[in-house]
Amino acid sequence: MKLRCRVIAVLLLCLHNGAFAMTPEQAKEKVELAEKIRNDSPQQAIELFTAVADDAEMLSFPKILFPALNSLVFVLIGQAEFASAKLMAQKLFDESLKQNDAYYPPMAQLLLGYVEENRSNYQLAESHHKFALELALKTNDSVLIAQAYDRISSTLRFQDKYLEALNLVQKSIAILREQDDDRVLATTLQTLGIIQGILGDYTAALATHTEALELRTALQDKSGISDSLYEIGGIYRKMKNFPLALKHAKMSYELDKKFGRKLDVANSANRVATMALKTKDLALAKAFSQEVLDRYLELDSKSGISGAYDLLGLIALESGDLAQAKKHINKAMAIASEHNLASTLISAQISRIKVAQLEQDFVTAQALGEQALASAAEIKEKEDEIILQQLLADIYYQQEDYQKAFEAHRQYKKLDDEVGTRNLAQTVAALQSKAEFMRRQQEIDNLSHEKVLQAAELKRKKLERNAWILGLSFLTLLVASISYRQYKKRKMAAERATLLQEVVDSKNRLLADVSHELRTPLTALKLQVEALQFNLVQDVDASYEAMNRKVMDINRLISDIYQLAQADSASLHLHPEAIKLDETLALWNEEFEAFVEAKGFNWQSQIKVAEAVSVQWDQDRIKQVLTNLLSNSTFYTDAPGKIALSVEQAAQHIHICIEDSAPGVADEDLQKIFERLYRVEDSRSRQTGGSGLGLSICKSLITAHQGKVRAGHSELGGLKVEIRLPLAAA
């Protein structure tokens, strides 16, 4: 009995003293196994790494512990376990600092910054990366210094500091070109490619991402290959090549499913669904959008979940299911609002505004638009501000609030011009930075070349002479290139100044004309008000009726100006629909005949259209054009006169002609009648009324339908307006 108690006591003592603790050999085996399975079985890898990291005995074996902690943090980030990743990265920093390790303190700071990047805490991430750079510079470790530059660059680009980011990532690449670490170089090239894409240098971005892809393919880095394919697809998306973007997104998704992090799989699935929607592949978009939602729910990514519901709403909207679209988008807005995700909330609100517009619920659309615009302005989301100003302009116009519509449209153009100017300035600065980078690369190449010369002393003179010739040729070419570029820049600046002056002159003329047009009804309105004020009017009702007509004149003029402003900025929205041309023209002909004859004119019509022909036109807009032209004819034709309509179908287009009898229009005026506020003197004068913008609006609507319009002399003695519309105008 005493012997048995003694054995038990010895066993307990051994356990207390760690006799059964993990040996260094066992720990090393666990780490090696975890490294092999970290992509295929990340959770199992986390358990193995954690077992080593949590073993107190491993503090005596830093060569095993520190790499295990380093890999563990990466896997935890991939599984979106950011809190655990931060704890392990901090442990790596503290323990490596205690043991005076040179490599892992800066690496731990890079990991802490990477955790914050994934949590969208970019300023905190930047401070960690800058601390890592300080530590790396003290150790003089080139690869660590390059990695620190790369990570700082990454956080800067998320804060829209693109030129600073470009400069730092170029420094990183310049260092890595001299090192033998293709894995890190590939990662840094990816950062460079992303920034080049943001700055609009798509050709350079594709070349950079392709180089990164080649390096990763040689290394058989499956996860890295997926990242490169994802980013190449992103460049094609920016270039509006959605089929190629979808193709690369699919390849990235398949690799991520096999080797990638959970967050990467969710993101690549999201890209597939979004690009499928862009290419009108609704079946594929629906299939992937549900998977996107499920994956973000698993990761508990609030921004991802909100974006997934927004995507489901857009797919439902494209499918014509407004109720389902509203349900999903409202859910996206609720999640984004609850978790203060400002940018995500604005995107969902934009989608909700589109639903409200289709429902003709302009009150809701206006309230949401104004709220989202204020939020976008607060967080300086310029692209969203542009979209919202354009949407609000259309909403105000639909509610006949032309003053607000005009102001929203003016703000949209102003913001669009500002963004274009800023992007141009960034692109120019980026090209200058790129030229400087190429110069530094040439210096590095020259240094490498000198080392080769030293190693091959027998060929030194010959190679040196060739190098001088090459350098002189390069310098000559560089000087010629710079001179030519400066010449082109000066020439472009001069042309731009001329064009800008022409635009300013044109705007000044238009403003002067508009002011004149507004002054006449406003003066009459003022006189009527004063007459009422001093009791000088005998018939008060007639006076009020006259004032109402002047207000309507001003309202029509503002509406006409707004339509022309939309046409100028390519934001004139058409709603084409399939219409049976013969039936539609028959109905219109009856209306036009009644209208013309009521004005005291004879009506003639001749319609030659096949019964089966169907066209894709915005029916209301085309009718607006014809009504406007017929109204002009009734104003400017001497009664009793004739007004005629003829419609004829050709192989690829429809020919429409409206003619009237005397008086006619002089040859010199025929080329100008479609200009804004231009009126023919004499018979077709201002005295007949109208804003002077009607024919300009007609021309803009026909042009928007990809058609043509021209004026000529009619055989009836007056004006002939001919319209040529394609059978399938969009």
From TrEMBL:
It comes from Thalassomonas haliotis. This is histidine kinase. InterPro entries: BphY/WalK/GraS-like (IPR050351), HATPase_C_sf (IPR036890), HATPase_dom (IPR003594), His_kinase_dom (IPR005467), HisK_dim/P_dom (IPR003661), HisK_dim/P_sf (IPR036097), Sig_transdc_His_kin-like_C (IPR004358), TPR-like_helical_dom_sf (IPR011990). Residues 513-729 form the Histidine kinase domain. Keywords: Kinase, Membrane, Phosphoprotein, Signal, Transferase, Transmembrane, Transmembrane helix, Two-component regulatory system. PANTHER family: PHOSPHATE REGULON SENSOR PROTEIN PHOR. Residues 1-21 form the signal peptide. Its EC number is 2.7.13.3. The chain crosses the membrane at residues 467-484. It catalyses: ATP + protein L-histidine = ADP + protein N-phospho-L-histidine.
